[in-house]
Known about the structure:
Elements: E1 43-50, E2 53-56, H1 61-69, E3 75-81, H2 85-95, H3 99-107, E4 113-117, E5 120-131, E6 136-146, E7 150-156, H4 162-171, H5 173-176, H6 180-193, H7 195-215, H8 220-250, H9 252-255, H10 259-339, H11 354-375
Parallel strand pairs: 3-7
Antiparallel strand pairs: 1-2, 1-3, 4-5, 5-6, 6-7
Helix pairs in contact: 2-3, 4-6, 6-10, 7-8, 7-10, 8-10, 10-11
Amino acid sequence: MKKHSWLRPPGASGASGASGEPADAPAAEEEPGRAEPTGRGSIVRAAVYRDGHRVATPATLADTYRQLHAEPSGMAWIGLHRPSEAELLSLSDEFDLHQLAVEDALEAHQRPKLERYGETLFVVLRAARYLDAPEEVDFGELHVFVGPDFVITVRHGAAPDLSTVRSRMEATPELMALGPEAVLYAILDAVVDGYAPVVEGVQNDIDEIETEVFGGDPAVSRRIYELSREMVEFQRATRPLVEILRRLMAGFTKYGTDEELQRYLRDVADHVTHTSERVDGFRSALADILAVNATLVNQQQNAEMRALAEAGFEQNEEVKKISSWAAILFAPTLVGTIYGMNFDHMPELHWLLGYPFAVGLMALVCVSLYFIFKRRDWL
């Protein structure tokens, strides 16, 4: 789909979060060369805007409050990374945030959701990024408070990289001038755009898994299981987002949302619906691949068992042959042994026909055993 010009200014990169530093630490959203002010805590960046332009970049929450009070028509955008309880309580006192929302933002590990507390929106999002080296999906959590004159983002994890969102919004002051709602939609778009590389990476993984399955790789079962677990998490991140966007669109008329923002939000909703459908398809595909792999493993095991049975049968046949010839050779040995005993009084020792009789007896026993074993297919 065609992206918005305000989200993709000339020279900007593709999907949000695909460029720049991974933002594993709060400094990811800092300006180059800017020193960390003392006592900033977990603040990644705080700024105050008027008419879409930044008018102040305070170093602390207290400075942010003072700058915002000095700009009656201004808007504060405060970015936090794993804030402390004291910082969230300070924000709660200043902007009248609901206690339940503050507890959720502090504890993290929340499901994606949208809650409205008076004039404040509280949105929980699950961002994702694909890690090429380990070939796995890494999930982050983002909490967004949106009020009449403020936007507060609380990030748990490396994703998403909100520095690109802020840069793009500041590059289009006409959109920034629309207020906190525009910032929320830009954040939503960045999170949804961040799903695109994940979808592409997972598709490549599934293609590789299919090749490994039919190649007989014994380790592929574990890889299928791990990727299936990731798709469950991915589904938990994308499916509730569809409902969040539906609820936001349902409030267009009631809350007087700008028409341009309405179009942007519908486009984001289309993207997340498409992504959610792709994730559902991945789960079905992995379930089918797992079933095929189980069938192939059973076939391989059956073939191995059949080969073992055939080998055992051949060994039995060889044992039969060896046993048959041993029995045949044992008969003359037995007769010869008896007549070779050194006893003075034995029958047939002085019999003129004793020797021919003994040889004939040996031959008769051997021939008889031969035909008996031959009839039983032992020879």
